């Protein structure tokens, strides 16, 4: 039996579309975990990246946080948090946030630092405050790269949020974990397919966001 047969069997089974273990329910749970983790990571990474990028200070700290965050294994951190904190959403959120902060922080920092200094100096010469320089001059130019960092973090979260199933939570990882335990490879392949499709949808969503939020001039300059 090939992968396509497993996919067809999984999605054509009406039992997978209803109830607490149905695709709509598991998909909603997965999106909820992903959005929560992304929001927390953005609240941490975006302000830190904007401030350090604007001031030019803290570059070494940014590099250290990025390296440390990428070096930590998500599953190992999940197990550690589960042992320390027990069941609940918090042990899942911590490794997902740790995974997502580095790409947001680093790309935001680099985006602001890469802005042409000429308009920044001109804005300061006109008497604009530092906050206005950041949000009215630097941020619009840096936005494409900042969005790419958010996109990278979102895709990593969507792909990794399956670990929630290992601590008895829901999400699309439930199909993968339960399928492996039951040796039901139809479930495993179906769950993996759903995660891959959701990651592609996330990619398309951020493309649309960039399309409508980045000015045409900045978008052409980024090409």
UniProtKB/TrEMBL annotation:
<keyword id="KW-0812">Transmembrane</keyword>
<feature type="transmembrane region" description="Helical">
    <location>
        <begin position="189"/>
        <end position="210"/>
    </location>
</feature>
<feature type="transmembrane region" description="Helical">
    <location>
        <begin position="157"/>
        <end position="177"/>
    </location>
</feature>
<feature type="domain" description="ABC transmembrane type-1">
    <location>
        <begin position="27"/>
        <end position="206"/>
    </location>
</feature>
<dbReference type="InterPro" id="IPR051204">
    <property type="entry name" value="ABC_transp_perm/SBD"/>
</dbReference>
<comment type="similarity">
    <text>Belongs to the binding-protein-dependent transport system permease family.</text>
</comment>
<dbReference type="InterPro" id="IPR000515">
    <property type="entry name" value="MetI-like"/>
</dbReference>
<keyword id="KW-0813">Transport</keyword>
<feature type="transmembrane region" description="Helical">
    <location>
        <begin position="31"/>
        <end position="50"/>
    </location>
</feature>
<keyword id="KW-0472">Membrane</keyword>
<keyword id="KW-1133">Transmembrane helix</keyword>
<dbReference type="Pfam" id="PF00528">
    <property type="entry name" value="BPD_transp_1"/>
</dbReference>
<dbReference type="InterPro" id="IPR035906">
    <property type="entry name" value="MetI-like_sf"/>
</dbReference>
<feature type="transmembrane region" description="Helical">
    <location>
        <begin position="62"/>
        <end position="86"/>
    </location>
</feature>
<protein>
    <submittedName>
        <fullName>ABC transporter permease</fullName>
    </submittedName>
</protein>
């Amino acid at each position: 039996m090939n992968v396509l047969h497993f996919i067809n069997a999984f999605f054509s089974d009406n039992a997978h579309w209803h109830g607490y273990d149905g695709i709509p329910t598991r998909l909603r749970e997965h999106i909820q975990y992903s959005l929560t983790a992304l929001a927390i990571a953005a609240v941490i990474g975006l302000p830190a990246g904007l401030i350090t990028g604007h001031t030019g200070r803290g570059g070494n700290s940014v590099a250290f946080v990025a390296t440390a965050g990428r070096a930590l294994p998500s599953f190992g951190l999940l197990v550690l948090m589960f042992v320390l904190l027990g069941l609940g959403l918090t042990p899942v959120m911590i490794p997902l946030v740790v995974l997502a902060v580095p790409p947001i922080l680093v790309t935001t920092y680099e985006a602001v630092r890469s802005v042409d200094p000429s308009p920044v100096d001109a804005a300061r010469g006109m008497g604009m405050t530092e906050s206005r320089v950041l949000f009215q001059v630097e941020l619009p130019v840096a936005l494409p790269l900042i969005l790419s960092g958010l996109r990278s973090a979102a895709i990593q979260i969507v792909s990794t949020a399956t670990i929630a199933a290992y601590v008895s939570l829901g999400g699309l990882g439930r199909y993968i974990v339960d399928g492996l335990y039951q040796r039901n490879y139809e479930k495993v392949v179906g769950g993996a397919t759903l995660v891959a499709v959701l990651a592609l949808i996330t990619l398309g969503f951020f493309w649309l966001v960039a399309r409508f939020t980045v000015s045409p001039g900045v978008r052409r300059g980024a090409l």
